[in-house]
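Q: Convert this sequence to structure tokens.
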Amino acid sequence: MVGELLGSYVVADEVGATEKDATRFPENSNWFSMQMQLSLPEAGFARIEDELKALVLLRNNLVHHFIDQHDLCSLDGCRRAQDALVATCSHIDQNLEQLQD
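A:
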């Protein structure tokens, strides 16, 4: 999904309508086209791309490896797992705030 978002909606310094769409319709027909993009400077685009990839890795780690990484059969292990989840939630909230900005 990150790959679909980047380069289609979030782009690096390139906003413009696609002229090639006009060739799909007969010359005498009426048609309407709309495109939305968020254009960012190269550095901002690279930062967003890196942050989104890190979030995907974080998600994959939570879904596929969290239980293997934490001893949920002990009280201390559960506390460490809870601390890890709280830190992860904070990290996700920070990224959500940036996205909303």
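The two ends are 21 Å apart (CA to CA).
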